[in-house]
Each structure stands twice: as structure tokens, then as C-alpha cells.
Amino acid sequence: MRSEDLFLVLDKEVIFDFKANPFWWPEFSTFWVVIGAVLTQNTKWENVEKSFVNLKNAGVQSLKDVANLSEPSLANLIKPSGFYNTKAKRLSMLCKNILDKFGSFEEFMKNVSRKWLISQKGLGFESVDSILCYACSRDIMVVDKYTLRIFEFLDFTFESYDEARQWLEDIDRNAVYKVVGSLSDNELFARYHGLIVEFCKAHFKAGNFDEKAKKALKNLL
């Protein structure tokens, strides 16, 4: 099995309107991606959206607005996302560090490095690559817990996060383009990650894939 084989199986199975939202992640290329990448840790995206509503109702329109909130106030606003005290502390510090280092979200988008993001407390590889892919429009694939579930089912093992990421990125673009049309690498990797998440959200329940998912994935074995 090659990466494009997995992509095309998922693309056939997943129902999602990529024409309306080609980069999948909500509010792509905005500072909300940075906030969402922190808040979505260990919780469902629906809970993050509730926190977004609270933040927007409180007048948050920029990273600076988040940085200017007291940690107790921020924690109260993001309470639906769970672990709110820890997340408030880490999110506040991240926003302040971004502004101190880059001056603005726009400069952050253009100039941030993966190394710098990984050095920030509370950001693992998945969160870092989500920010790079969806906030900064970088050509990088996100590997999340759903991706690992698929690899486990297919009996694929990798020695590291980056090895798995590189396998996914080593995709035959021409084979994909024949089915979905030409895409930039950023759009391709955003879509690929979105396909994985949407597939698993629909078919991975109570620790197992349902029969429809198993049938689709077994075509790759």
C-alpha cells in the first residue's frame, strides 16, 4: 500500500463538501486556528466551537485580545473545552510569545518555524503541524490519533511521528489529481487529514471500526 491508495479509498468513502471548504479546518488561515489547535487537545471539536462562541461574544478578534485577557477570565470563556485552567495558561503564554517574537499574526504566519513552535509549552507535534498547515498554509501533513487508528488496523508501524508524516506526504500526486483535480500541496495535505478525521468520526466507535470501514480498509491489505 502506498499513501495515494489510502487517500483514494478515504476520498471515495467520506461525505464532505470540499468545494465549499477546500482546506477542511474551520476558519482556515486565521488566528482562530492557533486557538483551536490548543483547545481541541483531549476534547471534541464541538466543545471547541462552544468556546469560540464565548470568546467571540467577549469581543475577541485577535491574538492580542486573547493575550490581554486574565488567565481566570480566559479559563472561564474556554471552559467547554475542558482542562480549562491548563489550556488558559498555555494559550495565554503562546499568544504572548507569538506577539513578542513576531509582532503580529501575519508576521507569525510568514516567519514561524516548526522548531520554534515545538519549543512552546503545551504544543506537541500534532498541534504544531495543525498550526503550520491550517494557520500558516504550509505544506505539511498532520498525523493525529485517528491516523494512528487506521495505521494500527492496517498493521502499519512507524518508529516516529515524523516517519509516519513523511510516509503520508510521499504521495503520488498525479494519481490523486486524476480523481480530485489539481491541488496545491497545502490543500492536498489539509484535505488528506480532513478525510482521515471525517472517516474516523463516521466509522470509528467504541474503540473499533464499523463493518463498512473495515470493508473499505481491507481493500488496502
UniProtKB/TrEMBL annotation:
Gene Ontology terms describing biological process: base-excision repair
Record SUPFAM superfamilies: DNA-glycosylase
Secretion signal, residue range per the UniProt entry: none
InterPro entries linked: DNA_glycosylase (IPR011257), HhH-GPD_domain (IPR003265), HhH_base_excis_C (IPR023170)
UniProt-listed Pfam families: HhH-GPD
Keywords: 4Fe-4S, Endonuclease, Hydrolase, Iron, Iron-sulfur, Metal-binding, Nuclease
Residue stretches making up the HhH-GPD domain: 39-202
Superkingdom, taxonomy of origin: Bacteria
GO MF, one annotated term: 4 iron, 4 sulfur cluster binding
Protein's UniProt name: Endonuclease III
Phylogenetic lineage: Bacteria, Pseudomonadati, Campylobacterota, Epsilonproteobacteria, Campylobacterales
